[in-house]
Design brief:
Elements (H helix, E strand, L loop, with lengths): L16 H28 L7 H6 L18 H14 L1 H21 L2 H12 L5 E4 L15 E5 L2 E12 L6 E8 L2 E8 L5 E5 L11 E12 L11 H35 L1 E2 L2 E2 L4 H30 L4 H25 L11 H11 L6 H13 L5
Helix pairs in contact: 1-3, 3-4, 3-6, 4-5, 4-6, 6-7, 6-8, 6-9, 7-8, 8-9, 8-10
Length: 387
């Protein structure tokens, strides 16, 4: 019985019937709706906003949140598989779903009031309201505690001043989940589009995540009511809790990108004839392809176990760091290898490898750089903080 080149350890057999159905549904959506247009979107620097209603109708927004809020109520492994299949299309599309689900809907659910949950989550699940997550600042990057954005209490309102950078969905968003320093520590606020003093400026000239909207956010005496403050968390544990949710999905996403690259390299190397034989008939090509399959298999096993731990309620942030570090490094290396195997053809966006390689430059950086996650594991091993 032949093994699937993209699932050598038969991970699929370890999935429940519901998990397999989720993966098949999103894979079909990616094949039929994403892949035919995403190369052109990348070339044009355009996010395919027209796909959002379909994404919402499939239950992919806030998929792990309870059904009572209009969400699908799926488990963590199913959410991971959603991320994997979307990123097999493009990291930009998976980033959109990650931000909406893990960085915007999750904090409203976990840290918001019941009124906030009822007001926002059903419409966000339906794709009627798009969110963005305002944490990173121009000077801050990997050091969110060095936050300069500030919110001060003024009567029954809060007045926010500051700026945020590298914000996915920024110019698409109807609301922003904004984290700001206050006299009582870091707190989160729901800032609605059109609020006076709140502006978003799209970042251009990107060579990565071109099929995604990336923005800078500016807050000039932005007044929001107390009702828009997330009441159930204070301190860095709020935004860091959101990042753990998003990083979990990111451990799965790069697997999809790597599978897309391996698929392309396999097919191309079988068809491309050099010196009288297919490239795939050479030992060097087979060794490289086999190594890609090995890395993908290890990443699949890592994320599946991480998902099972998350569903059991025992997942630790350090485990997420290890998986994000490993799987992003795996995917960026495979994308570059596949680009090389394609020769000159590999530099055009008519093939997927260069697009995934460029996208992975962002994915390996955001939600904690590779170095940050290495230091998280180093601290866990030694008990010494080297940040």
């Amino acid at each position: 019985m032949a093994l699937s080149p993209y699932d050598l350890f038969d991970i699929r057999s370890q999935l429940s019937e519901e998990e397999r159905a989720v993966q098949e549904t999103v894979a079909r959506f990616t094949n039929e709706r994403v892949l035919p247009i995403i190369g052109e979107c990348f070339d044009q620097g355009r996010f395919p906003k027209e796909l959002v209603p379909e994404i919402a109708s499939l239950g992919l927004l806030g998929s792990s949140l309870p059904e009572e809020y209009g969400c699908a109520g799926l488990n963590a492994v199913s959410y991971g598989l959603i991320c994997q299949e979307l990123e097999r299309g493009d990291s930009g599309l998976r980033s959109f779903v990650s931000v909406q689900s893990s960085l915007c809907m999750y904090p409203i659910y976990a840290y918001g009031s019941e009124e906030q949950r009822r007001q926002w989550l059903p419409r966000m699940a339906a794709g009627e309201v798009i969110g963005c997550f305002g944490l990173t600042e121009p000077h801050g990057g990997s050091d969110p505690a060095n936050m300069k954005t500030h919110a001060r209490k003024d009567g029954g309102d809060w007045v926010i001043n500051g700026s945020k950078m590298w914000i996915t969905n920024g110019n698409l968003a109807d609301i922003a989940i904004v984290w700001a320093q206050t006299d009582e520590g870091i707190q989160g606020f729901i800032v609605e589009k059109g609020t006076p003093g709140f502006t978003a400026q799209e970042i251009k000239h990107k060579m990565s995540l071109r099929a995604s909207v990336t923005s800078a956010l500016y807050f000039d005496n932005v007044r929001v009511p107390e009702a828009n403050r997330l009441p159930n968390v204070k301190g860095l544990k709020g935004p860091l809790g959101c990042l753990t949710q998003a990083r979990y999905g990111i451990t799965w996403g790069p697997i999809g990108a790597a599978i897309a690259c391996l698929d392309e390299a396999l097919n191309y190397s079988k068809e491309r004839v050099l010196f009288g034989r297919p490239v795939a008939a050479t030992q060097s090509a087979q060794i490289r392809l086999a190594d890609m399959a090995r890395r993908i298999t290890l990443a699949q096993l890592l994320s599946l176990q991480l998902g099972r731990l998350k569903d059991a309620g025992t997942m630790q942030p350090q485990q997420v760091s290890l998986a994000k570090w490993n799987n992003c490094r795996m995917a960026i290396d495979i994308a570059r290898e596949c680009r090389d195997l394609l020769g000159g053809a590999g530099i055009t966006t008519e093939h997927v490898a260069i697009r995934h390689a460029l996208n992975m430059e962002s994915v390996i950086t955001y939600e904690g750089t590779e170095t940050v996650h290495q230091l998280v594991i180093g601290r866990e091993l030694t008990g010494i903080n080297a940040f």
